[in-house]
Amino acid sequence: MTAFGTRLRAALDAHGPLCVGIDPHEHLLTEWGVDVSAAGVREFGLRVVEAASGRAGVVKPQVAFFERFGSAGFAALEDVLSAARGAGLVVIADAKRGDIGTTMDGYAAAWLTAGSPLEADAVTLSPYLGADSLRATLTTAVRHDKGAFVLAATSNPEAFALQSAQVVDVAAGDGQTVAERVARDIAWVNGSAAFAGGLGPVGLVVGATVDRAAVGLSDEALRGAPILAPGFGAQGAAPEDLPALFGAAASHVVASESRSILSAGPADIAARIAERAELYREALRG
Amino acid sequence: MTAFGTRLRAALDAHGPLCVGIDPHEHLLTEWGVDVSAAGVREFGLRVVEAASGRAGVVKPQVAFFERFGSAGFAALEDVLSAARGAGLVVIADAKRGDIGTTMDGYAAAWLTAGSPLEADAVTLSPYLGADSLRATLTTAVRHDKGAFVLAATSNPEAFALQSAQVVDVAAGDGQTVAERVARDIAWVNGSAAFAGGLGPVGLVVGATVDRAAVGLSDEALRGAPILAPGFGAQGAAPEDLPALFGAAASHVVASESRSILSAGPADIAARIAERAELYREALRG
Description:
The structure is a homodimer. Chain A has one domain (about 5-20, about 95-280): Alpha-Beta Barrel (TIM Barrel), CATH 3.20.20. With about 290 residues, chain A is of the alpha/beta class.
């Protein structure tokens, strides 16, 4: 197996930044004419995977919509993860897990271990218990050629107060924000290994429409880490905005869209994915 | 169904503050002589439930240790949750979920909805996306007579920088910490409904050994909300410390122990639970 950053780089180079969110909302299940059930989310997920295959490099199943149906929903998710990996897509499980110590080992065993039924290529993590509490998980990810994306700054308005709060750290002597601290706390992973020509294995989640200056995320803070950027499509940012929004980091942004693609319905989703993917590639070429 | 706060108050009044953590670590499964598998975590969980029944009021299964085994692990967790609720225990699913909008609706449907296979009495939530992003979930909890515990301040050392960071809020004109902001952001739930004689439905996770002054969690900030306090037992705090650690809030603390109880093994766990539960009751009487 090659390192996660290398696989991600290859996927972005081949297909461009688009990441297809697999978000089987109840209303989408109904629009697509599938059951609101574990069988329905399985069918929905497999159809999205089929449409994405060869047209985008990355997919991101949202775990909550499968978890909603309990163990049957997780069995459906296992099938979707397996189909997506089998199709050569880079699969980011959007689980936003975050805990400490041996509890995190449980999550790492679930999502980042070869042969686990929930095996993905990467998982999203939440750092409320301190990004440093994820250290062992990130080490496990690297060891298994897996990746992770740690929440840094998100574009929902309720998030700003927390993510822009100033860390009081007498030793550091500066007023870094929480989001900046997260970026610094994970930087060692990407810096300490040789990922020549690729990307580091551990990225950040940074919403496309976030005011990066206000939360302290300079281009420098984003250096080396892949960026998972929700907020494109129905959530506000356009593909052509990518270079302006992310500056020097634009070449390693994974631009996630869900509703704008899934709303095409089962008959048109493949064409919609191809069309949106091309818009991002054009933006980067331009 | 009665409100979650009322059920929790009754459980604490009947059995005292002890909450038994159901943490089927791999090394504990081996010590207990059960398989390291989904079947093993099911057996382990069911035995802990049986031992806790009638001896403690609250149990807290750690979801990560079940998730580790994928859908089969979730099926085991479903059985453990169902057995615990059937035994009249108040069940807190320690999932630390946190997301936004309709994604959180998925988690609420999973954990806080009657008839869901993963139905619990309450779930733990993580507020990195802003405690206000959990507003709809908390409303759902109240409507379904369920509860939630939102992470505020935890005792792992890596957490302090984030949880003590100062919110920059010109309108508020003060330097509240992230943990304090979380406490304020959830206060409306417990204040807006009539829970006469009981506790509010939404609590906070506050580690037993946290320096509450340093993270801005005064007795006033904890008023009305049930407190889920990990950090007792093997993690450092003793039952007799409870009144001094939590002051005026001690009467509504749920004191969680895991390793200190589970290490007793299957033969002795019932006696250990009874003994630890009595120590907490003595502490509150003293």
